[in-house]
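Exercise 7. Given the encoded structure of a 378-residue chain, write a plausible sequence.
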């Protein structure tokens, strides 16, 4: 049977919105909590200890945006789950790696698996119809396919948002009603998890809440993070920005001939002159995923279509270490897969998603009514 992500719609004040989210996505939220609770137990972190870590981390989230804490409390109430489990869904990597027990912290640095991804953004001048395409493969634990949803967020004072997320999370990948799109890829370097920064899921949500593209870029570029991350932001009028973010410094990667491709290793020459690449140890296929992806789209630059983008992201060369990853054991013994292939057309407010695409490359469409005009007047 075809697997899809369920669509829910939420609105209202943060706590009210969260309650609606939790009630509608209770099944998927509890599934996700079950997955991560197993991971926590495997790392010898009991529920009480997890709660203490999250209590210590909460002031960082509140300082960034207290409304996000209200929304997470609403999600917990609506789904009838513990609040600290919802925080865990929004900051799983940060919480695990920043556990306050020093000996535990050292163990966790070697025990948390990264989520691999491959990003592809095509500028309007490189497409057949003159519309930007922003696409992404999310590689993570196979069981996350049962705990993922699409959320349509209706806002009174901000752009509406259409986002893909692990249920209970406030953000992951998505687009908003003024044509801003966001995806992100895992990166790793020696500066990671030395200090406490803002959870990446919340940072991406913040970018999608912006009506002005400049402020979305500011959020991604300047916000201090706990660990490295590659953030890709685009605007429907054709601008593409790729920020390779270390916790305390941001580097840029430029599109080439209207095409931006990024996997899970650092590309910026400036970054490579200053940091130590550590992601290749667990994701060696990253070294060729981006090259392979670029080679598939380059011959069609100027006439690229959504179908071309989908075909490139579904490529199975070197399977199971391929752009589109079938379920396989990772180097850390989890069952890993390309959980979703996601293709967005921000000018049309359209997001298409194939769940576990190596098993079934069928896409489901989700839409968002768009506002006229241009965000940020670019």
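Solution.
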């Amino acid at each position: 049977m075809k697997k899809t992500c369920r669509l829910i719609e939420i609105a209202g004040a943060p706590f009210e919105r969260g309650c609606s989210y939790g009630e509608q996505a209770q099944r998927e939220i509890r599934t996700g909590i079950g997955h991560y609770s197993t991971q926590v137990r495997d790392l010898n972190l009991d529920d009480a200890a997890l709660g203490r870590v999250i209590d210590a981390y909460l002031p960082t989230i509140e300082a960034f945006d207290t409304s996000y804490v209200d929304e997470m409390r609403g999600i917990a109430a609506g789904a009838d789950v513990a609040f600290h489990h919802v925080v865990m869904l929004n900051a799983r990597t940060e919480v695990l790696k920043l556990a306050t027990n020093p000996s535990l912290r050292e163990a966790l640095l070697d025990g948390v698996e990264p989520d691999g991804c491959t990003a592809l953004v095509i500028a309007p001048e490189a497409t057949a119809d003159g519309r930007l395409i922003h696409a992404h493969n999310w590689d993570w634990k196979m069981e996350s396919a049962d705990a993922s949803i699409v959320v349509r967020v209706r806002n009174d004072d901000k752009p509406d948002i259409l986002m893909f997320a692990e249920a209970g999370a406030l953000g992951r990948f998505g687009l908003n009603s003024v044509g801003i799109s966001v995806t992100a890829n895992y990166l790793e370097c020696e500066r990671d998890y030395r200090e406490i920064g803002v959870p990446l899921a919340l940072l991406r949500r913040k970018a999608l809440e912006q009506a002005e593209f400049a402020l979305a870029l500011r959020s991604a570029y300047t916000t201090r993070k706990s660990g490295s991350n590659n953030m890709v932001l685009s605007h429907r009028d054709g601008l593409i920005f790729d920020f390779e973010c270390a916790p305390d410094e941001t580097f840029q990667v430029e599109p080439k001939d209207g095409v931006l491709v990024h996997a899970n290793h650092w590309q910026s020459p400036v970054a490579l002159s200053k940091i130590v690449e550590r992601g290749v140890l667990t994701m060696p296929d990253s070294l060729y995923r981006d090259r392979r992806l670029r080679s598939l789209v380059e011959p069609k630059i100027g006439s690229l279509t959504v179908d071309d983008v989908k075909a490139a992201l579904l490529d199975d060369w070197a399977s199971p270490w391929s752009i589109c990853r079938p379920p396989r054991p990772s180097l850390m013994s989890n069952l890993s897969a390309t959980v979703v292939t996601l293709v967005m057309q921000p000018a049309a407010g359209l997001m298409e998603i194939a769940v576990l695409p190596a098993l079934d490359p069928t896409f489901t469409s989700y839409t968002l009514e768009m506002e006229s005009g241009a965000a940020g007047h670019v």
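Remark. The chain has a mean pLDDT of 92. Students should compare their own answers with the one above.
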